[in-house]
Amino acid sequence: MTDLPFKFDEIGYWSELKLESVEKYGAAYTTAFANFPNLKKYYIDGFSGAGVHISRTTGARVEGSPARALKVTPPFDGFYFIDFDADKTEYLRTLCGSRRDVQIHTGDANKYLTEELLPTIQYKNFNRALCLLDPYGLDLDWDVIMQAGQSKAVDMFLNFPVMDMNRNAIWRNPDKVPRSGVDRMTKLWGDESWREAAYAESRQTSLFGPEIVKQGNEQIVAAFRNRLKTVAGFGFVPDPLPMRNSRNAVVYYLFFASPKAVAEKIITDIFNNYRNRS
């Protein structure tokens, strides 16, 4: 279809592995609940896109996360796809056809998730959800993560966009970071404690006192992982998977968080299949 009002997103090798990881875990997830017919299981895609990508390597079409989730066996009981781009959600509707188990929402994923959808996904309600949060950059609100963790009913994949953070918020000189970058980083982190993870005092001093040194990605990622456990309340958060670009630089980390120990074991096995690739 050459007359589409938008272009499919191009994705690299590691993004294709991310989609494989989510698909594999989705099948394990629904299988684990197969013997609990009274418990409803849902798939939530907070930044779903059009459901189709273009491989930067081959130029071929690649099924996106919504299309893959729809094919998972045993199936989910319902699907929620959210994206702010009306052209992409309209195309996604054509992929889903007349399926009654699919809800597609065009608009702000943060608002829809926190105000409408996540309050209904609760352990006490005998429902569960696998949620993919793959924002286009620093576009995710901590409240979404917090609600998911506190529900005790959500398993979550999260794109932690370190490259976007370094470009827009975490600079070597924190005094020069624009206000917009600071605000976006605080929105994702939940408060300004991200500064403690991003900067440290150097042992060297100048005439003006201790120098402030920007921390590496590893320190920031470790602090966020701890935050998912101690603040959001996810019981199990394995080491995230670094996702790279064609120059082998880390673009983002793929986090997984769950209230269940068995989930951590499953995703650790999946991540380890990809971890040492380059």
Task: Give a brief rundown of this model.
The chain has 278 residues and is an alpha/beta fold. The chain has 10 helices and 12 strands.
Quick one: biggest sheet?
Answer: 7 strands, mixed
Report the C-alpha radius of gyration, rounded. Answer: 19 Å
**Distance between the terminal alpha carbons, to the nearest Å?**
34 Å
Strand line-up across the major sheet = 6-5-2-7-8-12-11
Counting helices, strands and paired strands, the structural category is alpha/beta
Low-confidence stretches: none
Task: Let me know the average pLDDT.
Answer: 94
Oligomer: single chain
Coarse morphology? globular
Q: Could you explain the architecture of this structure?
A:
- This protein is an alpha/beta fold.
- Helix content is 38%, strand content 24%.
- Strand 3 (52-55) and strand 4 form a beta hairpin.
- Helix 1 runs antiparallel to helix 10.
- It is globular, with a radius of gyration of 19 Å.
- 37% of the residues are buried.
Chain-wise SSE layout:
Layout: E1 9-11, H1 13-32, E2 40-45, E3 52-55, E4 61-63, H2 65-70, E5 78-83, H3 86-96, E6 102-106, H4 109-117, E7 127-133, H5 142-151, E8 154-160, H6 162-168, H7 179-189, H8 194-198, E9 199-206, E10 209-214, H9 217-230, E11 241-244, E12 250-257, H10 261-274
Parallel strand pairs: 1-3, 2-5, 2-7, 5-6, 7-8
Antiparallel strand pairs: 3-4, 8-12, 9-10, 11-12
Helix pairs in contact: 1-10
